[in-house]
Amino acid sequence: MLAAALRPAPSLAAFSPSTARSPPPALLSFPPRPHHRLHLSATAEGAGTTAAQEGASAPPVDEARLAQFAADWQAARAEKDDGKILRLPVLRANSGGLIVRFNSLQGFVPNPLLSPAHWCKDPKRPIQDVTKELVGSPIYVKVVEVNEEERKLVFSEKDASWSTHSSQVKIGEIYDGIVSSVFHYGTFVHLRFPDGNYHLTGLVHISEVSWDLVQDVRDFLNEGDTVKVIVVNVDLEKSRIALSIRQLEEDPLLETLDKVIPLEADQSSSAGIISSPSEADLLPGLDGICNELLQEDGITDVQFGRQALEKRVVSQDLELWLSSVPAKDNQFKLLARAGRQLSDELR
Q1: 319-322: long-range contacts at Cβ-Cβ below 8 A with a sequence spacing of 24 or more?
Q2: How many other CB atoms are found less than 10 A from the CB of residue 237?
Q3: Which of 102, 187, 254, 291 shows the greatest Cβ crowding within 10 Å of its Cβ?
Q4: What is the DSSP code (8-state) at residue 329?
C-alpha cells in the first residue's frame, strides 16, 4: 500500500515576517475610535440639517449676536435713566401682563402697570381678555427695571401715561371717574379725560369721601362705581393726584349757618333772628365749654356771634359742630344747638 503523511496547511501567520512576535488574532487590539457629536443648525428655511461631519468640532459662538444683546441691555439702561417714552410692539399676552419687543430683547409689562384706559373699557370684563386684543399693536411705555444678570426687563405703560397727561391736571378741576379699588385708607379713582379715555388714577383719602363719619370706605364706595371728584393736589415728583368727593358737596355746617342763621337782615320763615346774645340766655353749658376752650393752647379769645330760634325742635341735648373749612384770620366757626335755640361762635 501506498502510505502518505498529511501535513496541515500552512496558516496565514506563516506568511508574516513577524509570525513569532504577533499575538493571536483574538488578542489583537485597535486604537479607540473618536466619539463624535451631531450638531444641528437651522437653515434659512428652518429645516434641521447636519452641520458637523464625523470628527468635526463644535460650531463657533455667535459673537455678533452676543454683542447685540449686550448693546441692547446697555440701551435699555440708558432709556431708563433718560425716562424716554418708547413705542414697542406687543408680541403676546399672558395672565400676568404683556410681552413686548425691545430691539433684540423681550420685556414684560405687568397688568398693574398698564394704563387705566384698558381697565375702563369694560370694568366688568377680565383684564386678560382685554390684553389679548393688544397683541400685534404698539403701546407706549417707559423702562422701569433693567437687570441683565436675572434677564429681567420691565416696562410701565402707566408711567408713560403720567408723563403725557399729568401736566393737564390742575387743582380745582372736576373729573368723572370710575372707582378702581377700595382700601381702608381710601379709594383709587380712574380719571376720564376730554378724549373719553381714562389715562390717570388718583386717590380719594378716607377723610375726603364724605362729610359724614367714614369708618369703612366700603360702606360708601365699591369697585366700578362712577363718581365725580375734584382735584385737591398734584404731586409731580411722586406722581400722585389727591382727589376729593365731599368737597363737591356743601359742608352741612355751613349750610345750617347760612339757612338757619341768615347773614341778611331779612328774616326767613324757619328761624327768628336775635341780634344780640344778651337778648337771650346762652345755651345751657355753652359758657362752661367756652371757658374750657380758653384754657387750650393757641386759643386766645372766644366771641359769641349770632343766635336764632328755630320753630321746630331738633334736639334738647347740646350739640356742637366745628366747621372743617380752613380758618380765616385764625378764626374757627363753631355752631351750638339745643332745642330751638342756635348760636354761632367765632374762636
Answers
A1: 320/289, 321/252, 321/253, 321/256, 322/253
A2: 5
A3: 187
A4: T
Confidence class of residue 36 from pLDDT cuts 50, 70 and 90? Answer: very low
55-99 pLDDT, tens digit each: 445 555 588 889 999 999 999 999 999 999 999 999 999 999 999
pLDDT in tens, 95-139: 999 999 999 999 999 999 999 999 888 877 888 889 999 999 999
- Options 2.40.30.170, 3.40.1160.10, 2.130.10.10, 2.40.50.140; CATH for 169-248 is 2.40.50.140
The residues spanned by each domain of the chain are 67-162, 169-248, 252-346
- As a CATH number, domain 67-162 is 2.40.50.140
- Contact between 343 and 305 under an 8 Å Cβ cutoff? The reply is yes
Note the pTM of the prediction, 2 decimals. 0.60
